[in-house]
Design a protein that fits this description.
Structural class of chain A: alpha+beta
Order of helices and strands of chain A: HHEEHEEEE
Shape of chain A: globular
Largest sheet of chain A: 6 strands, antiparallel
Strand order of the largest sheet of chain A: 1-2-4-5-6-3
Distance between the termini of chain A: 14 Å
Oligomer: homotetramer
Largest interface: A-B, 44 and 44 residues
Strand content of chain A: 35-45%
Number of helices of chain A: 3
Number of strands of chain A: 6
Amino acid sequence: MHPDERQERVRSSFAKQGLMTTSGATLGSVSSGMVEIALSPHPAISQQHGFVHGGAVSAIADSAAGYAALSLMPADTGVLTTEFKINLLAPAAGERILARGRVVKAGRTLTLAQAEVFAIAGGKEKLIALLTATLMAVKGRDGISN
Amino acid sequence: MHPDERQERVRSSFAKQGLMTTSGATLGSVSSGMVEIALSPHPAISQQHGFVHGGAVSAIADSAAGYAALSLMPADTGVLTTEFKINLLAPAAGERILARGRVVKAGRTLTLAQAEVFAIAGGKEKLIALLTATLMAVKGRDGISN
Amino acid sequence: MHPDERQERVRSSFAKQGLMTTSGATLGSVSSGMVEIALSPHPAISQQHGFVHGGAVSAIADSAAGYAALSLMPADTGVLTTEFKINLLAPAAGERILARGRVVKAGRTLTLAQAEVFAIAGGKEKLIALLTATLMAVKGRDGISN
Amino acid sequence: MHPDERQERVRSSFAKQGLMTTSGATLGSVSSGMVEIALSPHPAISQQHGFVHGGAVSAIADSAAGYAALSLMPADTGVLTTEFKINLLAPAAGERILARGRVVKAGRTLTLAQAEVFAIAGGKEKLIALLTATLMAVKGRDGISN
């Protein structure tokens, strides 16, 4: 696939993720093996202390890692997360929450990817979470496409 | 704390989680060391294949584990997730998605909890995810209460 | 495979694990989807505080989970751990350290298993670690058999 | 603490880890927030297919991450691993297995560290495992010192 096609595939798939739209998440830069997703803190995605909910942080981090993996996969392949682990290092607060996903090792069946999540405020980035995910390439399963 | 007070604390905290309301999640049974949270699949929380997004599954699983931990903590304590790991075993589809959190080991500072997530359809439960989380008890931090 | 053959396969594979012999680990009960491995604390497997090293605890927990998975796999299949996560809940000290592995969900390619690790002293068991592992069934790879 | 004292503390603690000696592991470079530990593959630390056992890989990775954390902690503090997650990406085979631990975020109580593990053969390094660990600083607990 041409890099433009890969990007287009990621953007088209992202647009179908209802949770991303509901959360107000936006897709940032998409390149081979690296994808960014951002979120603006607001009450609809908060936890009980007013910070962005760990589930919302996990969702954009998981999606950033998953799309980084998808960006390196063949055209007829979809991607599923089989497992992830996330360390939440500091409260998710600030003007913007940014997840940067990148592929650590791409394999035929399984890909390992990480996402760093930053809280951005006053022009400064602070690392607030680190996710590691295993993504599986899937072909021709019912209901699984990009 | 009296069990009723513990339950009330969990219910009051849950009501403040914007993401839970936005996702349409509802709090089920709350007892000492065990909490259930349910979700009905709908497009606003889907991923690109139409299943419930792994981020939404993680959010209810993390919250169920966290509230199970909180249900055993002293009155003046809040709870924060420091890390979790989730294995996504099958697509999250069906009539209802149910996360059952339970404490594995309660400690003074750190509590280990797990949540099993089931997809319910036609009266049958299918295990679709397993989460393990480390929860931290926090006292008197700025902005951290229940 | 007959249950006896499955048991025999696990026992034969375990005997080939140099690290298990070196650590003094012994294979306990083996049944379909459940395997126990035990260890006696001694200085050769300690960490700096004199407790059993987390790496040795992880090794028997990972092996117990892996053999629990292998016990359910077809005859021509080997097993590899693709990832695991372990929470170390208390120092590994006592007369005996016992890992109990069990399959959570067996799949064609990936199996999810858990192992609980107990420290046994004075006839009492104390949970000291919890491991979750993803195991992959492998066929016909160079150098991979049971 | 002076950097030399920090290094000395790590080296002295490492020498007390029976499992490291038993495994034939050696401590490599030690600097502030970064520690290397190496291992030579041999039958005493193998799994059933002849590769280095995942438990031995985990042990050096966990120790490298833990000592990277300890290298940044105050003089009167010991370190304990509370949890780790490791992805095993390729068989651990080659002339040497090298774990490189580095601190991702140092905190007062909890530190997050990672370790990359490489298999070295013919002058080439291949990433074979990635570990993420949470380390806890401990003071004045019975039996816990460096």
